[in-house]
Design brief:
Blueprint lengths: L2 H4 L5 E4 L4 E3 L2 E3 L2 E4 L2 E3 L2 E3 L2 E4 L4 E3 L2 E8 L2 E3 L2 E9 L4 E3 L2 E3 L2 E3 L4 E3 L2 E3 L3 H28 L1
């Protein structure tokens, strides 16, 4: 027996059109959503949100295609596409974005390869600014 016979085949998680999930969905492989999910959807691979489907919660993955409705923030490490039937209400973090004509996007978008590092740096800077302002306020009150 060679190693390929012993290894498990690559899997894909599929949520059918008549399926409703309440809770988070996490998979190391591809996820395709055709039904309804009320919770976070996380994949170490790709996520497809099919036409007529809906997610109330965030979505994370490498490459994400939205053809259904998403109410929540989306983080795509490689690529995000919102097709003509796609609807997204939430913020986006991605390095590559395509919004087709007819798609709906309501939210903010941060793009670039180093988004996570930049966001961490911005949060730290804001915290330091807040700490300094708080110290100044405390000194003023003490006087």
């Amino acid at each position: 027996m060679d190693d390929q016979e012993n290894s498990q085949p690559s899997s894909e998680t599929v949520v059918g059109a008549d399926v409703k999930i309440k809770g988070n969905l996490r998979s190391p492989s591809n996820i395709s959503i055709y039904g309804q999910v009320n919770g976070q959807v996380d994949s170490d691979a790709n996520v497809l949100i099919g036409e007529g489907s809906g997610i109330e919660g965030g979505v994370k993955g490498n490459r994400i295609v939205i053809s259904g409705k998403v109410l929540g923030n989306v983080e795509a490490s490689e690529h995000l596409e919102i097709t003509t039937t796609g609807y997204l209400q939430g913020d986006i973090i991605t390095s590559d974005l395509v919004v087709q004509s007819g798609a709906v996007f309501l939210g903010n978008c941060k793009m670039g390869e180093d988004n996570e590092a930049k966001m961490t740096e911005q949060v730290q800077e804001k915290k330091e600014d807040s700490d300094e302002a708080l110290e100044e306020l405390e000194e003023t009150i003490e006087e």
